[in-house]
Amino acid sequence: MRKGKPLRRSGDISDGTNLVPNAATLWLVINFRSGLKDAINAERGVRGISMKGLARISGIPYGTLRNYLEHDRDLPSTVIALIAESMGMKTHQLIIEAERRVELAREQEQS
What we know:
Layout: H1 23-47, H2 51-58, H3 62-70, H4 77-86, H5 91-110
């Protein structure tokens, strides 16, 4: 028998699965996802790394990487870290660039 905290059932309000994000939160999530993908693709371009090349050096299967970067899929933190490391960057550098892109999008939307 497991000691400690009881297991939560899926759907408990305490695990956040029943929470509905507001419009501002959705905007931020969508734009951060887009900003992160743009930042990765921009860095690939600067470094001359193709999508297939990034797949090879990161160990992420090409189809999976393509799905993350070209389609509406969230990138897990482990994938972000692998991509950053594969391009000779720290993970936080990609996050900072994605945040910068979100701020630019926010400024453009407000003007």
